[in-house]
C-alpha cells in the first residue's frame, strides 16, 4: 500500500459518515423542531408569507440595499416585472459600525443615484423624488430588528445597540438628505429590513413559485422555509404579532404560514463528528454544520489536513478559500502544489466536499419533511452562494446522497430582489 493510498483510506474512514442518510435526516428533523420551540438564536420567524400582492403604484421606486459584507450592493428595481433598472456597488473601508458608518454608506448611495439621474437637484425639478427602501442585512438580528452580532471584520458600537437597523438607516437618510437638500431633492421611507435567507426565499417564491426551500451555501450556510403559524411556541408567536400592522386581524394568523430564518449552521452538535483539523475556534463547536459545509471553513479544514500530512509547507503562500477548493475538486490545472502530491490533494478536497454534500442533502430532506411538501419524490431548492454555485462537484454530490430528487436552482441578485419583493408585497396604502 502506498503512503498516498494509506492517507486516502484513513481520511475516508474519518470523513464519510457511516450512518445511513435516513438516520441523519431523522436526527436533523428532531433538532430543527426542538430549535423551533426553544432557540432564541436560530429558527426565528421573520415575516409572514404573503398570499396576495398588495396594490402598487408603478411610479413608486424601490431602492434595494444589500449589506452582506465588505462590498455593499444597491439597485433600483421595478416591480412586478422584477427588472433591475440600475445597480452598483462599492467597498466598505470603514469597519466601526456607528452612525458615521451608515451616514457614509447613504451619502455614497445618494451620490451615485444622483450621478445616474435617479435623484434630481432642487434646481432641476420641483417634484420630490420618492423612494421606498428595503434592506437585506446579512447579520443576525433579534425579533425587534436589532443587531445581535457582527462579523467579517465589523465592530459594533454600544451607541447603536438600542436602535433597530431600520431606525438607524432611516435616520441616516434623513440626515444626509437634510444636509444636502439642494443636491438630493428626494424623500425616503425605509420599509423592510430582512435577513439574507428571507431575501433568498422571497426571490425564489416570487420567481419560481414552487420552491419549498431556500438555501445559502457561500461564506456561511443557512436556509429558509415555511412552517404553519401553529408550529411556533407562544413566545415566538407574540414576537411575530408585534411586527404586524395595528389593523391586522390577529385571528387570521392561525391560517397562515410563516417564513423561518433557520440559521442551520448551528445544526448538528450531536450528529456531526468534528475532527481535529475541523476546529477553528469556538465557531466549530457552535456551528458544526456551517463549519464543514461553508466556503469559509471547509477550505481551512483542507489546509489543516494538508499540513497534518506534510503535503504543503507551513508557510504555504496561497490563501485557502472556496475558489481554490472548487479548482481542486474539478482537478483543474494548478501551479501552487507539488506535482507529486497534486492528485492526492485533489482527492482529499473531494472527500471534504463529499462529507459536506452528505450533510447538506440530509438537512434539505429534514426541512422538506417539516414543511410538509406535497411533492414527496422531488425537492426544488432555490439557492445562492458562490461556493456551491461554482462547484459542480458539490452540486452533483448533494444530488447523489439525497434519497429523493433534488433540483438546485441558482438565484442571481437574490439579496437585492428579495429585499425589493418584501417591500412590494408588504407595503400598505400609506404614502411618503
From TrEMBL:
Q: Which residues form the Hexokinase N-terminal domain?
A: 14-205
For the biological process aspect of GO, one term held by this record is: glycolytic process
**GO molecular function per UniProt:** ATP binding; D-glucose binding; fructokinase activity; glucokinase activity; mannokinase activity
One Pfam family name is: Hexokinase_2
Gene3D superfamilies found in the cross-reference section: 3.30.420.40, 3.40.367.20
Q: Where is the signal peptide?
A: none
- Entry GO terms, CC: cytosol; mitochondrion
What's the superkingdom here? Eukaryota
Q: What is its EC number?
A: 2.7.1.-
Question: Per UniProt, which keywords does this protein have?
Answer: ATP-binding, Glycolysis, Kinase, Nucleotide-binding, Transferase
Matching entries from SUPFAM superfamilies are given as: Actin-like ATPase domain
Give every Hexokinase C-terminal domain span.
213-423
Q: Which family does it belong to?
A: Belongs to the hexokinase family.
Query: What is the protein named?
Result: Phosphotransferase
Which gene carries the instructions for this protein? SUVC12G4750
Amino acid at each position: 500500500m502506498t503512503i498516498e493510498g494509506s492517507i486516502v483510506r484513513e481520511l475516508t474512514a474519518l470523513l464519510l459518515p457511516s450512518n445511513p442518510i435516513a438516520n441523519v435526516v431523522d436526527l436533523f428533523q428532531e433538532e430543527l423542531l426542538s430549535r423551533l420551540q426553544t432557540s432564541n438564536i436560530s429558527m426565528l420567524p421573520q415575516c409572514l408569507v404573503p398570499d396576495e400582492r398588495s396594490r402598487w403604484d408603478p411610479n413608486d421606486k424601490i431602492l434595494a440595499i444589500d449589506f452582506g459584507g465588505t462590498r455593499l450592493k444597491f439597485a433600483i428595481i421595478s416591480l412586478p416585472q422584477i427588472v433591475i433598472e440600475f445597480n452598483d456597488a462599492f467597498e466598505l473601508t470603514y469597519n466601526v459600525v456607528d452612525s458615521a458608518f451608515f451616514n457614509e454608506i447613504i451619502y455614497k448611495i445618494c451620490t451615485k443615484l444622483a450621478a445616474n439621474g435617479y435623484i434630481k437637484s432642487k434646481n432641476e425639478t420641483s417634484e420630490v423624488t420618492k423612494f421606498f427602501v428595503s434592506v437585506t442585512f446579512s447579520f443576525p438580528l433579534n425579533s425587534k430588528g436589532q443587531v445581535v452580532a457582527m462579523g467579517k471584520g465589523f465592530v459594533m458600537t454600544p451607541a447603536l445597540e438600542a436602535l433597530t437597523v431600520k431606525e438607524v438607516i432611516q435616520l441616516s437618510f434623513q440626515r444626509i438628505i437634510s444636509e444636502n437638500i439642494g443636491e438630493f431633492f428626494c424623500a425616503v421611507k425605509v420599509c423592510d429590513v430582512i435577513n439574507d435567507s428571507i431575501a433568498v426565499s422571497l426571490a425564489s417564491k416570487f420567481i419560481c413559485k414552487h420552491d419549498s426551500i431556500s438555501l445559502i451555501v457561500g461564506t456561511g450556510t443557512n436556509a429558509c422555509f415555511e412552517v404553519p403559524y401553529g408550529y411556533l411556541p407562544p413566545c415566538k408567536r407574540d414576537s411575530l404579532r408585534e411586527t404586524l400592522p395595528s389593523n391586522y386581524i390577529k385571528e387570521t394568523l392561525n391560517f397562515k404560514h410563516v417564513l423561518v430564518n433557520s440559521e442551520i449552521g448551528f445544526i448538528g452538535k450531536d450528529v456531526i463528528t468534528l475532527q481535529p483539523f475541523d476546529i477553528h475556534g469556538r465557531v466549530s463547536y457552535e456551528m458544526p454544520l456551517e463549519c464543514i459545509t461553508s466556503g469559509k471553513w471547509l477550505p481551512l479544514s483542507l489546509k489543516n489536513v494538508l499540513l497534518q500530512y506534510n503535503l504543503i509547507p507551513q508557510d504555504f503562500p496561497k490563501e485557502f478559500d472556496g475558489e481554490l477548493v472548487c479548482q481542486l475538486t474539478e482537478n483543474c490545472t494548478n501551479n501552487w502544489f507539488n506535482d507529486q502530491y497534486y492528485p492526492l490533494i485533489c482527492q482529499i478536497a473531494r472527500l471534504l466536499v463529499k462529507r459536506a454534500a452528505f450533510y447538506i442533502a440530509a438537512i434539505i430532506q429534514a426541512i422538506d419533511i417539516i414543511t410538509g411538501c406535497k411533492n414527496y419524490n422531488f425537492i426544488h431548492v432555490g439557492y445562492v452562494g458562490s461556493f456551491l454555485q461554482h462547484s459542480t462537484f458539490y452540486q452533483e454530490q448533494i444530488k447523489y446522497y439525497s434519497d429523493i430528487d433534488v433540483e438546485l436552482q441558482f438565484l442571481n441578485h437574490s439579496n437585492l430582489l428579495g429585499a425589493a419583493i418584501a417591500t412590494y408585497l408588504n407595503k400598505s396604502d400609506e404614502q411618503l
